[in-house]
């Protein structure tokens, strides 16, 4: 099933509200760059500094005839507590709660080195059982 098809299944009755695709993952894996690429313009800041994205950032996308809304989120660090990481976690949780589909962005080297950490992070963010799509970046 494609991302657009999965998002369409969670669309409210009446179908007037576009489905929401939340882009989630650890800090600095390319979520904001992917968000900008999907929008076709630079709306999100892209920096090599973890914590640059703190709030949710929305954009409307049309792809292959389907319209949907994407949400860029801050990086989720499962080991961080308090301060900005906790506030970022709350923003990610809000994005996940409203999402029809979760687009989980992960650096390929992390999948190779820490597969159990990735599974734990997926369980943390996907307790609502939204359809989940993995997108790996890097080598």
How would you sum up this structure, described in words?
35% of the residues lie in helices and 24% in strands. The protein has 5 helices and 5 strands, in the order αβαββαβααβ. It is an alpha/beta fold and 139 residues long. It is globular and about 40 Å long. A 5-stranded mixed sheet has the order 2-3-1-4-5, with helices on both faces. Residues 1-8 have low confidence and may be disordered. It has a single domain, classed as P-loop containing nucleotide triphosphate hydrolases (Rossmann fold, 3-Layer(aba) Sandwich). The chain has helices at residues 3-9, 31-39, 83-98, 108-113, 115-125, and strands spanning 20-25, 57-63, 66-72, 101-107, 132-137.
Number of H/I helices:
5
Instruction: Output the strand order for the largest sheet.
Output: 2-3-1-4-5
Classification by helices and strands:
alpha/beta
Order of helices and strands: HEHEEHEHHE
Largest sheet: 5 strands, mixed
| Number of DSSP E strands | 5
Radius of gyration: 14 Å
Please indicate the percent range of residues in DSSP E strands (runs of 2 or more). Answer: 15-25%
For the record, the count of structural domains works out to: 1
Global outline:
globular
